[in-house]
Design goal:
Elements: H1 5-14, H2 17-23, H3 26-43, H4 45-48, H5 89-125, H6 127-141, H7 145-159, H8 165-180, H9 182-196, H10 200-207, H11 212-220, H12 225-248, H13 260-268, H14 277-303
Helix pairs in contact: 3-5, 3-14, 5-6, 5-8, 5-9, 5-12, 5-13, 5-14, 7-8, 8-12, 9-12, 10-11, 12-13, 12-14, 13-14
Length: about 300
């Protein structure tokens, strides 16, 4: 019987309202296909990319500024052309997307964990803890998220030795973006927790002597995760954009680990000298990636809303 458990699980997924809503929307299916293709291309970049842009032994400066293959001086070895160092643009995009997606997923996971924890505490315990946490959230909401990320990134770099900057730059960016986005999760979870904690199942858990931590984790948390998943999906696109913005400004990941934002910044220096492909293709990749994620987030928000079913 256990062997049929995965099959039954898949059957329930395919028979669910969520799957029906997914298959009935061509835009959502196309967005999911594009997002999945980009994620797989990024994950498999070391094996499927035409060239290794990080292997200096394979780079040739004589190949620098080679235009895309459909232009007069194009080379079939470099389908989308090369940059100022002779790196294949297609390969750098695949490796750059790998870093951008990692930062996006890691920062959303961090902000979600922080926001859910603080939101549960504020909503379930209430009192002074609720007041302090929500006032901190209100203060942070008065500043743009990208400004908060820039401030945190600058403070962390100022406190650390300069020789460590490049080594931990990736983690600093993840921390900065994560801390700047926890408020939405915390406020949503707090509001849902205020509703859930007055219900009978929570009161019954209190009567039988369960600890507040166990009640919050085992009983309240599963019932507030629906809106959290929607916010996480929507915030993924913002996190990818935030990382690209920080890298474009020169305070993100180091040039030795180029993300899409770094590639756009490098290409921007040559945009008006005729080498437009260096910045255009990474920019289009970033835009398509964020658009597909946002469309999936919009669909998930509507699909999980019982009022729209």
């Amino acid at each position: 019987m256990a062997a049929f458990a995965p099959a039954r699980g898949l059957s329930r997924v395919f028979d669910s309202d969520l799957w029906w809503s997914f298959t009935r929307s061509p835009v959502v299916v196309a967005s999911a296909t594009v997002a999945l293709t980009m994620i797989l291309s990024a994950l498999l970049a070391p094996w499927i990319a035409p060239h290794d842009p990080f292997n200096l032994a394979t780079l040739d400066l004589l190949d620098a500024f080679t235009p895309p293959v459909w232009l007069d001086e194009g080379d079939w070895r470099f389908l989308l052309g090369t940059d100022d160092q002779g790196r294949d643009v297609l390969s750098t995009i695949m490796h750059g997307a790998r870093i951008s997606l990692f930062v996006g997923f890691a920062s959303v996971l961090f902000s979600m964990t922080l926001g859910i924890s603080l939101g549960l505490l504020a909503g379930y315990l209430g009192g002074a803890i609720d007041a302090v946490l929500m006032r901190i959230a209100d203060i942070q909401l008065t500043f743009p998220s990208i400004l908060v990320a820039l401030l945190i990134d600058g403070l962390v770099r100022a406190m650390l030795p300069r020789e460590l900057h490049d080594q931990i730059a990736l983690w600093v960016v993840i921390f900065a973006i994560g801390v700047s986005n926890w408020v939405q999760f915390a406020r949503t979870v707090r509001g849902s927790t205020l509703v859930e904690k007055s219900k009978e199942y929570v009161m019954a858990a209190r009567v039988i002597g369960l600890s507040p931590v166990r009640i919050m984790v085992s009983h309240v948390l599963p019932n507030v995760m629906g809106p959290v998943l929607v916010i996480a999906t929507l915030n993924l696109g913002f996190a990818i954009l935030a990382e690209a913005t920080l890298s474009f400004l020169g305070v993100g990941v180091p040039p030795t680990q180029p993300s899409l934002g770094t590639l756009i910044r490098i290409g921007n220096d040559f945009l008006f000298s005729g080498e437009w492909w260096i910045t255009l293709f990474p920019g289009v990749t970033l835009a398509v990636m964020v658009l597909s994620v946002n469309l999936l987030g919009d669909w998930l928000r509507d699909a999980l809303n019982p009022k729209l079913r």
